[in-house]
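Annex B. Sample input.
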Amino acid sequence: MPIGLLALALGGFGIGLTEFVIMGLLPEVSADFAVSEATAGWLISGYALSVVVGALVLTAAVTRLPRKPVLAGLMVLFIVGNTLSALAPDYPTMLLGRVVAALCHGAFFGIGAVVAADMVAPNKKAGAIAIMFTGLTAANVLGVPFGTLLGQAAGWRSTFWAISAIGVVALVGILILVPATEPGTAGTTGLRGELRAFRSGQVWASITVTVLGYGGMFGAFTYIAFTLTSVSGFAGATVPWLLMVFGVGLFVGNTLGGKAADRNVDATLLTALSVLTVVLTVFALTATSPVMAVVSLLLMGVFGFATVPGLQMRVMKYASAAPTLASGANIGAFNAGNAFGAWIGGVTISAGLGYTSPIWAGAAITLAAVAVTAVAARKANARKGTASTNHTAHLAGV
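Annex B, continued. Sample output.
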């Protein structure tokens, strides 16, 4: 395994921690700045929206630049944003810090995925992407619980100082361990060439599957605390530890999904999304059972995140001549799916359908992802078969 992948994973860990740890610190931040819970919530939603903007705008702006310096620059932006949050004298400054940190998120994962794939042999690309995303899963398993505990014990600002320090270590690792892009392999297509990748129907199909597949999982996950306490009967104090079970599932799914996608991307996505649909359906039906709730939570993490390396690999595969912007756009699609799923789940709760309704909605959205994947895979196989037939006919002199 190229050691540079560890530097990328550490950067992913810091970024994942920045995105998710604020959820456990909102009460402290809200009280410190004397703002309502709803206003404090913009520190989450504002971050997500900024990720989508950064994934497209920043990635487009740096397509002609060597990727290693770009990754280093994005990590500097990450450090500045989190330092600004740690020093924020008021709520608007805190929100600005969140926005600045979020802008690097999509571009870092999008460009980092391309760099990670370039570090390894063609048959190990999805696995390399999975290693980079391991940082994001580790942030959920370990970073968020301990970051929340640190913030509660030493003040929420201490958590953001710690995240800034992680960013510094990741920056040094990138500068030392990530290989420089070989001359002539980066930035040769320019923005116009990168945009041409979006003429591919398969690229758009891949992005659509990302929105639906990730939206289905996070539509169910966003309101999971309400489901676990109000339906499954768990005490509120146990929720952080139950979320660690979900985090373990993310870690396992990311690892297995990366290995499977290296063998067959479409088969991996179809299997993982189909099983995830079943898991969500069973979860909704058995949520009143504490044991089944824990099992379902684990499996939801496993099969939900087993799709991530494959989803990223698929969009890069069909945008292979100019993958950077498409890769960044797909990272934005993950966050768009997150927002879409959370919105649908909120609508079902507001309609009075209960705290299992977001899980049912997630199952329906994931089923739609299965359908889109099946159609896209069938078209890709048909085109591959036609190309093979034409090639054979050409060799035969027909």
